[in-house]
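ARCHIVE CARD
SHELF: 3
SLOT: left
DATA:
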Amino acid sequence: MATAPNLTVGETAKGPALAVGDTTKAPSVSAVHELSTNGPNHTYTPRTRWEKVQEIIWDGGNRTPEERKLIQRLDIHVMSWATFGYFIRLLDSGNIINAYVSGMKEDLHFHGNQYNLLTTFFTCGYLVGQIPSQFLLTRIRPSVYLPTIELLWSILTFCFAAVPNVKTVFALRFLLGMLESPFAVGVITLMGSWYTPRELGKRIAIFYSASYAASMFSGYLQAAIYRGMNGTAGLAGWRWLFIFCGIISIWGPLWGYYAIPDNPYTTKARWMSEAELALHIERMNAIDRRKPVPLTWKKVKAIGKNWHLYAFTFALICHCVVTQPLNYFAVWLKSLNRFTVYQINLFPTAAQATGLVFTLTYGWLADGLNKRWQILVIPAILNFVGMVIVASYPGYGATFFGYMLNATSWGFWPVLYAWAIELMHKDMEERAIVIGVAQTMGQVFIAWVPVVILNVGKYAPRFHLGFSVMSGISVLQFSSIFLIRWFAKREAAKEKAEEDAGTSEEGDL
């Protein structure tokens, strides 16, 4: 790692502050390079064109071998656990769609809007667990809490293979949602404690891309199981799907107990040396990423008065609602009566593959170009175009393309959270609460909105009403980008004015 020789652990580097404002100004890549690569007393060496290209491709550029090695070791432990963990989380919660179209509907006698209720019960459990879990994460070590809930939901996944009726499925979905609720937000909070702005966006994108990989894998797995194991040992293929998912999932928490490092100020990670820890703390000090403090009610009230909570929550609510169409892609395909069960499980993986590529692209561009709101505009526009197409239902080919476009917009989420972490860089507790509340409120809306406007019993297979409403919400998602930017610029100007006033007073003395 590139160190600042004259800094001791716990000392804050002096240099360009991480402005709480438009990310075109801060935190700039050059500012982070100047602090973490050259140190505060060194002359900044301009990057070459090749180093700028390396910066976009990965974390290259003007870095020392020590810093490269330091981040590689962090990636090996944190990113491997986080990405696999999110993979199994989405695999274990999303496989219900593949099971539903592969015989579970007929075997358990689903009817009416009970398909929608699968999501509703999961979301209700998610809501019950989400915010309390964020508070618990400020009290309990993530290295204990997160892998434990992983272990519990992995065990629960096996239980789905034995469900006798629809009511049992609903009960298990509620418990699964409650157990999975801390994971995504907990991981993002963890990443914000270890990675700098030039590293964060692409890693959140990699983390989030596991959701596409999980959905694709679930489709391939169910298709293979339905062909090869349907009826084996007297079990339907969809029951075997849950058994295999449980077997895959159990390894995640076992690795997590060892790999998770908590945060740089409290870590007890056995794989990290004291020297490495000191360098990590210097990196965080250099970008003013402060040490966590105990969460109090006074602090909670202060967070509740800040614009971050409301602006990011609004943006995420819009995003959660307008990315629902892919949950109904397989239902639409089945309604056409032109594809086999194998094909119905296979075709939606094209959308997941599309989402995977675009999500990673957004993350790489956001970090490499050091742009946040500018990149967010791209998926927001693509989402609106896709929503209009599926709402108007111009024909089979165009509608299929509309679903594909909707998949390209899922990468909005990782860049939005990377931006949120940067704007709240000074306060770990605020980051945890804001991200937790935003995620929770997003789930609140997808708990009831699909039941009302995407009722399978009433509106399948075209869902004209629901997709038309979502087209309007897509416009609000686009608007939320500029709402956040306006607040951020206003706050940055206010901080600069206060800083200038303080400098003026010191000069008078």
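SLOT: right
DATA:
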Amino acid sequence: MRIRALATCCAAVAAVVMPATPGAAAITVGSGLSTSVAVPAATTPPLPLSVSATPAPTAVPCPKAVAPKVSRSPKPTPPPSVAAHRTIGGDALATPGLIVPPGVPAPPRVTATSWLVADLDTGEVLGGCGPHEYATPASVQKLLLAATMLPKLDPAQVVTVTREDLDIAPGSSAVGLVPGGRYRVETLWLGLLLQSGNEAANALARLGGGADGVTGGVRAMNEQARLLGAYQTHAVTPSGLDAPGQFTSAYDLALIARVCFADPTFRRYALTERARIPAQKAVRGRGFEIQNENQLVYRYAGALGGKTGFTDYARHTYVGAAERDGRRLVATLLGAEPRPRRGWEQGAALLDWGFALPRRTSVGRLVEPGELDTEPSPVPTRPVDPAASAAATSARPAGTASVAERPGVGTFVALAVGALAITLAILAARHPRRTDLGAKPPS
């Protein structure tokens, strides 16, 4: 009786231990068949992705040049800040203030509200002021258009400019293209980068946007920004003319500029000093010459070019790059005023500061295109779809088991207890029950 009771108890323990073990699942044997065991969901809650009780450090003020007071429109309200986006490129970049390597000379005083200096080749971020702060781009957004459409459009293709392409804000920058005029795509690019032509931006976005036209072009720009890791950039217009919800950051501009300057065709356009816009005899349009508005090209040794920008909301924005002693740097700045130094001069001063720093000096890095899309996703907290789980199981080769299906410690304990219970039950069957008084069994 005692042996049977012990056997019953062991069997009960095995029944309790087996389903309570997270690792208890179908154990696949060499034949590809499986012994069915209960497969409960793990009861341990997932750990949080990050836990931090450390308060954010106090921001170091950026060196500022005093600019004359100007009447300006209220700044657009940026979208809510996303903590993960502010640490792209390194935790040190998540500051609204100054971030530079320790012990280096102070950067120049500029009027820009945010800026960044980075190495185009190594991707090292040499320093910045509020590198992940939202700002309005103005015409430096045309660099995103170039990064998106240059690989897609044939520069030798001849296209017709439409009246819709000329639908731009009155008084805004334009090349002087005429509706019905036929121009090579290369001419449109030169008009975009030398003269900041907004009608050229519309035409290029329309051509690259496929059946959806400009809307498709802007959508492609935003997809490209996402691919580059420029998560704080959102385009609404291809030209950078102000529109609700349109923002970028100094860090994002450096990511975009790095892709542009990696393209030899872009570098050739950006360093072009003069270009000829051909006459359009069919629509009585005269030919004329345009010049590069980026003074860095003419007045900075080793200049690689860049892009200027201005709107009432954005104020002056600038991206400029240069090469010195085999080192290529880019400076991006947003929200600047033209006095005491113009935007390109502020960019030149930041480039000088960057070139004076020792090589391999950095406070962060520019992420590579597509890098953020390849990072592993967080562990899901929702239950796994049974159908998907079954499909995954059937797709595994015979004789294998997933990690979740491999037996855990509790499984082996349960099996051992179960084996003991079976042994005791066999012994009980072989030996009839006896009484302590030696009485015969009932007949």
